[in-house]
Amino acid sequence: MTLTNTFKKVKAASKTLALVSDTVRNDILNAVADAIVAGKDTILKANAADLEKAGKDYAFYDRLLLTPDRLDAIAADMRHVATLPSPLGRILKDRTLDNGLHLRRVSVPFGVIGMIFEARPNVTFDVFSLCFKSGNAAILKGGKEADGTNRAEVELIHEVLRRYNVDPSVVELLPATHEATGELLTAVGYVDLCIPRGSKRLISFVRDTAKVPVIETGAGVVHCYFDESGDMAKGQRIVDNAKTRRPTVCNALDCLLVNRKRLADLPQLVAPLAAKGVRLHADAEAFEALSGSYPESLLEKVADDNVWGTEWLSMQMGVRTVGTVDEAIAHIDKYGSGHSESIVTEDKAAARHFEDMVDAACVYVNAPTSFTDGAQFGLGAEIGISTQKLGARGPMALEEMTTYKWLIEGNGQIRK
Amino acid sequence: MTLTNTFKKVKAASKTLALVSDTVRNDILNAVADAIVAGKDTILKANAADLEKAGKDYAFYDRLLLTPDRLDAIAADMRHVATLPSPLGRILKDRTLDNGLHLRRVSVPFGVIGMIFEARPNVTFDVFSLCFKSGNAAILKGGKEADGTNRAEVELIHEVLRRYNVDPSVVELLPATHEATGELLTAVGYVDLCIPRGSKRLISFVRDTAKVPVIETGAGVVHCYFDESGDMAKGQRIVDNAKTRRPTVCNALDCLLVNRKRLADLPQLVAPLAAKGVRLHADAEAFEALSGSYPESLLEKVADDNVWGTEWLSMQMGVRTVGTVDEAIAHIDKYGSGHSESIVTEDKAAARHFEDMVDAACVYVNAPTSFTDGAQFGLGAEIGISTQKLGARGPMALEEMTTYKWLIEGNGQIRK
């Protein structure tokens, strides 16, 4: 392992974080925000060099691009994190036993969090602020296309940390290589938690490689079931918002499940999508129901089952016909990724059954999955959306970046 | 994978558990307890056959042995679990957003829990009761020496489940082979959480093999630091209780760290251990301090550092001299397993510093680590002691066998 020395430095630095008060943490976050604003030129210069190598793919270029306005927004986000309550030292349980032992379960940092992300240079500052605020050291592994920008950002953070006499190794950026990802995922004893953000391919590599605890984030194969009793006005708004508000994010709708008894209403339900150019991949029954009303150029009959389970991340969507709420639940069970699922229904029993039986981080009744977001949930800034069940589930904000320990105080009691 | 059909059956059965109320769950647990008492002969016959093959190692034989009294105790434990509050459906957060969306974070089962354990036939009933009460299906992989007993036990449980029209596949016992362990640990999509209980060797195999989320339990390299200001009477009781109450369990003391300024008091501190035959492995300074007072036949000078970090599970203990509380913390950081650690001190600042800096599930001040136990903590029955930070940490009782989901109820709101 060529990075062992880096891992050791970060682990040692993580221990010193326990001695930094929340007030000082907040001061440092505000100082980093100041430095971002003051140091725009340096960061933008590094970013320009990255962009020059990036080529012309618009979406990719746009994700990589920093501007003075975007840096102001990043600084504002960092100042916002400084205003949030500390997630540390919360007393989660407190009891005194009959023998006088005083037990407390108290929230504490994980220690060292490894973060793997692709070419989005805002993530470096986001992750630093959330890790630092929650008392965790961070080992960052960014995409190679943003490496120059990331290095300039981490250097800026290090300068501020040095000014406050905090060990700068509380945040380190690894080389932007595949090998570094592998080393990070197997750094047993140095990394307490690893959070990969990115593509299905990355998540699958992580699953195969990781020997440290991992929280998988981001993959969202998201459904909306329009029930026999679904309200048309609500359904239209919900499907439209979930699909088209931001089609490239993980909470965007991928597949509409429609109750067979409402097939006649399907054209109306998806009408708002046509104007926005959403391409529908419909099963035979839905295709027939839509033929003639939905634009032919945007309508495709599903040839095989490969469509189901696709995370589109674009203006496309599956449409499938089901007979009952249980058929909808079975489809979600088979094809969903445990991220966000919704039902549109006026039937309270159906809503309750859907909530009980759907196994996902976020289950919606008469609301769009686009709400799955830490800030929307009132949790403050988020580091990602967990699709697993161990540790955090759903939006991971500051509280979800802590673990706990038990403190037991006695006076010489012994166990019989 | 030869066990895929079993995994599928259990996963399907786990879904049906959501439809079983807590009252019915408790009825079934009581009915299984009745069946254990009524079916003693069958279980004891199977156990006798296992014992015959087991050989003469007393400790091993005793762990494997069931008796009518032990079965009564197991049945009583199961009835006790039935009296505990359900860990499901707890509202962990509840808020209504300004836009009227109603958010609840609600505790739910993991789904399917895989349990790997060695030749202790009481574990089968324990695990079943805790999984069933917490709404989880269980896939058991027991030790081969107890396989006949385990099969008789699971058959008994299946009979009761059938009587209550619950899918018996909510608990299944895998073949007692190494291959089955491997399949269980890689059953992605079928197993939501795997909890291995057993030796260091098993834990290490799990770490190398697992592709499903795992909670590591059981390995306890446990320290007690006797501080400069430690009270002798408390220290004697605490060290004695932590070391000798049950030396074979994971919370038993493995290493006493003594402040150099209290070396003269060391003979008195460990005096209660001599009568019980505890063999001490002491560093040079501690060896010198103990020579002449501690029985020569039970005292050994440590030749190399291999002694530190040993989990003895027997009447042996390391003794090491340190200069400060920070040296004690550094030793624990290097050699501890994150299970249970303690300090004996009258110095409040030292106690606080130890609590803040020691990274372990349970940190004790003036109390012995022998208290690390779900029932002692007032959590009810436990399935194990987690030494990791993701998910449960410390004693895992019913609440720790649940995850949560977010339920979001609206009325057609959309996100801007």
UniProtKB/TrEMBL annotation, chains A, B:
Main location: cytoplasm
Gene3D superfamilies for this protein: Aldehyde Dehydrogenase, Chain A, domain 1 (3.40.605.10), Aldehyde Dehydrogenase, Chain A, domain 2 (3.40.309.10)
Pfam families (UniProt xref): Aldedh
Signal peptide: none
Any one biological process term the GO annotation gives: L-proline biosynthetic process
Gene Ontology molecular function terms on file: glutamate-5-semialdehyde dehydrogenase activity; NADP binding
Location relative to the cell: Cytoplasm
Residue ranges constituting the Aldehyde dehydrogenase domain according to the UniProt record: 7-267
GO CC term (a single one): cytoplasm
EC top class, as a word: oxidoreductase
Highest taxon of the lineage: Bacteria
Pathway: Amino-acid biosynthesis; L-proline biosynthesis; L-glutamate 5-semialdehyde from L-glutamate: step 2/2
PROSITE patterns hit by this protein: PROA
Keyword field: Amino-acid biosynthesis, Cytoplasm, NADP, Oxidoreductase, Proline biosynthesis
NCBIfam families recorded: PRK00197.1, proA
Entry's family note: Belongs to the gamma-glutamyl phosphate reductase family.
Role played: Catalyzes the NADPH-dependent reduction of L-glutamate 5-phosphate into L-glutamate 5-semialdehyde and phosphate. The product spontaneously undergoes cyclization to form 1-pyrroline-5-carboxylate.
Name used for this protein in its record: Gamma-glutamyl phosphate reductase
Biological source species: Prevotella lacticifex
Lineage: Bacteria, Pseudomonadati, Bacteroidota, Bacteroidia, Bacteroidales
Gene: proA
